[in-house]
Every structure is written in C-alpha cells, then in structure tokens.
Write a structure and sequence with these properties.
The chain has 187 residues and is of the alpha/beta class. The protein has a single domain, classed as NADH:ubiquinone oxidoreductase Nqo5 subunit (Beta Polymerase, domain 2, 2-Layer Sandwich). 20% of the residues lie in helices and 25% in strands. It has three helices and seven strands, in the order αββαββββαβ. Strands 1-2-5-4-3 form a five-stranded mixed beta sheet. The protein has a two-stranded parallel sheet with strand order 6-7.
Length: 187
C-alpha cells in the first residue's frame, strides 16, 4: 500500500530546481503534487531525471494528456501543452511535467515533442490519443498513428479551433446498434 507523504514535495521541488534551474518555466505547488512547466525540448530530460534519479524514483507512469490553450483567458508560452503525471512509490508523491509545445507554423510542420514511450510503456497509447485528438506528434514513438478516429479522418477534434458541430462527418460514421441477447444469432 502506498503511503502519501506530503512532506516530500519540498524535497522533490528542491532537487528539480537544483538540476533544471533556469530551464524551468514555472513551478506550481498543489495540495497533492508539484507541477513543473518546461519547453517541449526540455520535457524528456526532466522526465528521465525524475525516473532515473535514485533519490526521486518516479517509476510509475500515471497519465499523459494534451491541452489546447488557444482560447485560454490568459497568455500561455505556447498554444499546446502535454502534461505527464508520474508517481514515486519511494517518496509517496506525484509530479506533473507540463511541456509547452509550439503550434505548427503556417500549416508546415506539425506540433512536435519527444516521445516517452521508451521510458514508460504506458505512454504509448496516451501519446497516440494526443496525436489523434490534438495533432501533436511524438518524435521517436514506435507507432505514431491514429487510435480513436478513422485512419482517413481529417483534423483533430479536440483542438479549440475545430468546429463544435464538426465538419459534416457525423453522417459518414457507421452506426452500430446493439442486438438484445435473446435475438442475437446463435453460433
């Protein structure tokens, strides 16, 4: 059973600030965890440091999600962010790494960040989901393709500039209806 130890949050903050210093864009101390903000280029090295550092031991991948700040009420460093949440069983605390990912310029190169699938197997599918729904590509990912939307689907439906009612694709999706068990064909 994991015992949460809030007193270790200050130890975590001191170690990360000592190692990454001016590469940190920000630090927010929450009730149950600390969130560190960095540029996309620094995210993987911070996550590797958190995992491989024996005194920190963030060996448990909890989640990874995407954020689109396009219509956010206050300015953010970049349009997109990828937030990775890890747990240290040794310290009994969680950490979040919020990596700000620049949007693509003029439709040329897509938004990109390094994959963490080689560090945590659990990052594989969450990174594919972020790619599918936000269009953020993960460099070095072993299988960077759609996971939720059809392969030929154009666009990324969780982006803030995606039309609320879609682009007319609703009628093109196949509809499956459940068949009551007593009416299902017998093998």
């Amino acid at each position: 059973m994991l015992v949460y130890r809030k007193e270790n949050l200050s130890t975590l903050a001191a170690k990360v600030e000592g190692a990454f210093g001016d590469r940190l864009l920000g630090k927010e101390e929450k009730t149950l965890y600390v969130q560190f903000s960095v540029k996309a280029a620094d995210a993987k090295s911070l996550i590797r440091f958190l995992k491989d550092s024996p005194e920190l031991g963030f060996t448990y991948f909890i989640d990874c999600c995407g954020v689109d700040y396009l219509k956010y009420p206050r300015p953010m460093p970049e349009r997109f962010a990828v937030v990775t949440t890890l747990l240290s069983p040794a310290l009994g605390v969680k950490v979040q790494v919020r990596a700000f990912v620049p949007a693509s310029g003029n439709g040329s190169a897509p938004a990109r960040i390094d994959s963490n699938a080689d560090l945590f197997a659990g990052a594989n599918w969450t990174e594919r989901e972020i790619f599918d729904l936000y269009g953020i590509e993960f460099t070095g990912h072993p299988d960077m393709r759609r996971i939720l939307m059809p392969d030929d689907y154009e666009g990324h439906p969780l982006r803030k500039d995606y039309p609320l009612r879609g682009r007319g694709e609703r009628g093109a999706f196949p509809v499956y209806h459940a068949i009551p068990a007593d009416q299902a064909p017998k093998d």
